[in-house]
Amino acid sequence: MNIAFIGLGNMGAPMARNLIKAGHQLNLFDLNQSVLAELAQLGGRISASPKAAAEGAELVITMLPAAAHVRSVWLGEDGVLAGIASGVPAVDCSTIDPQTAREVAAAAARQGVAMADAPVSGGTGGAQAGTLTFMVGASAELFATLQPVLAQMGRNIVHCGEVGTGQIAKICNNLLLGISMIGVSEAMALGDALGIDTQVLAGIINSSTGRCWSSDTYNPWPGVIETAPASRGYTGGFGAELMLKDLGLATEAARQAHQPVVLGAVAQQLYQAMSLRGEGGKDFSAIVNSYRKPQ
Ligand code: NAD
């Protein structure tokens, strides 16, 4: 299949590599020339603009940082919608607000293009290994068209509902994750300060009612879970800046829906303070350091 792939960063580049490996012909566009050159070596074709990449493509995929980039790449003068043929399916995998996802999809629909939102979880490791989870907002028909291609980049391809619902699923999950990591941090640090062995405490939590992914798989206390970023200096995981971005999307969506997100707002402020301390590049579980004396 001839696929346009736009946005070849930490996530997009390995996803595109997996599609090339699966035998697709890729039209590539990014602002970063060096990643284009690298993927061209693997057989991808470099395009001069999103419009040029979309011309002749049978599917368009984008993986961009935030809503403003998605708007400009899709709706701009040299954007995807200026080049894509009517009837060609399209999917944006960036994490953005549901409102923008719906607006861009509506603009696509006006020219006969069915567009889905399909944000991912699984991080750069999942993108490289082709084991991402895709949360897809699309009609049943579009989902059926996209599913086989997404399955070449991911393991779980979940149909969440109509367009926009993929983003809703993603931001609600990450709202809960951001909060639960702070809860586990608070409990672990209190236990330590009061004098219990943190391994014992984690063992109790993980076989009791406090158990959650942030405690039993990704515990923020160093040494509790060997494979967690906490055990390697909070490197190589899900950066606090990305968590901050997702909490911002959640609180903004909540504002628009007049829905309270009390703990989400507090969590956002705590990650914000972490960013101010210059720790935004660390894994988000380093939020535990807000509760500890400097180590
Ligand atoms: P990134 O910043 O590494 O990559 C974004 C790419 O988009 C860059 O190569 C950049 O040059 C390109 N770009 C920006 N503006 C462009 C434009 N106008 N035209 C063409 N290319 C443009 O970001 P990433 O880590 O790959 O994340 C992409 C998306 O995936 C984000 O929405 C992020 O929230 C989401 N996400 C990231 C992770 C992760 O662990 N990195 C996990 C899940 C979801």
Automatic annotation (TrEMBL):
Domain 3-hydroxyisobutyrate dehydrogenase-like NAD-binding residue range list: 164-290
Ranges where the 6-phosphogluconate dehydrogenase NADP-binding domain occurs: 2-161
Reactions performed catalytically: 3-hydroxy-2-methylpropanoate + NAD(+) = 2-methyl-3-oxopropanoate + NADH + H(+)
Stated name of the protein: 3-hydroxyisobutyrate dehydrogenase
Family named by the database record: Belongs to the HIBADH-related family.
Entry GO MF terms: 3-hydroxyisobutyrate dehydrogenase activity; NAD binding; NADP binding
Protein species of origin: Pseudomonas protegens
NCBIfam families, A to Z: HIBADH
